[in-house]
């Protein structure tokens, strides 16, 4: 938090920030609890697409196999496109994007990749 405040122009020392956080934490139990908090998201049509990979298990010819699934979702309509691959390689990323954009009938202005690491 201290470093973020410095980026915003705070020129004080670390001590006052530390004391403020300590005081705030001590007062927290006495504050009313927040049951819901959200940031409304609004996306214009054709603006944004999200892309992610998942791994799934399928039985092919009687053998349990792991496959990769490319997931695309248009943010405005929530319309989805899925493509499956034997692994996650660069040429498969390109192929999945080409297929998704052909399916959607165009390319959104921007898209974001959501990265989740399996432990």
Summary, kept brief:
Helix content is 29%, strand content 29%. With 119 residues, the chain is α+β, with helices and mostly antiparallel strands. β1 and β2 (63-74) form a beta hairpin.
Overall pLDDT score? 84
**Proportion of helical residues:** 25-40%
How many helices in DSSP terms?
Answer: 3
**Gyration radius, rounded:** 23 Å
Strand content: 25-35%
Number of strands: 4
Label the structural class. alpha+beta
Describe the overall structure.
This protein is of the alpha+beta class and 119 residues long. Helix content is 29%, strand content 29%. The protein is built from three helices and four strands. Strands 3-2-1-4 form a four-stranded mixed beta sheet, covered by helices on one side. The longest helix has 15 residues, at 90-104. 7% of the residues are buried. The model has no long low-confidence stretch (mean pLDDT 84).
Itemize the secondary structure elements and their pairings.
Blueprint: H1 2-7, H2 14-27, E1 48-60, E2 63-74, E3 80-85, H3 90-104, E4 110-113
Parallel strand pairs: 1-4
Antiparallel strand pairs: 1-2, 2-3
């Amino acid at each position: 938090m201290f470093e973020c405040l410095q980026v915003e122009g705070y020129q004080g020392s670390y001590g006052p920030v530390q004391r403020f956080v300590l005081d705030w934490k001590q007062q927290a139990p006495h504050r009313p609890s927040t049951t819901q908090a959200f940031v409304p998201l609004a996306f214009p049509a054709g603006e944004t697409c999200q892309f992610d990979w998942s791994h799934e298990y399928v039985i092919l010819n009687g053998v349990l196999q792991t496959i990769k699934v490319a997931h695309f979702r248009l943010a405005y309509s929530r319309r989805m496109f899925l493509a499956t691959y034997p692994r996650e390689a660069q040429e498969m990323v390109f192929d999945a994007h080409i297929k998704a954009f052909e399916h959607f009938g165009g390319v959104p202005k921007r898209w974001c990749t959501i990265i989740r690491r399996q432990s």
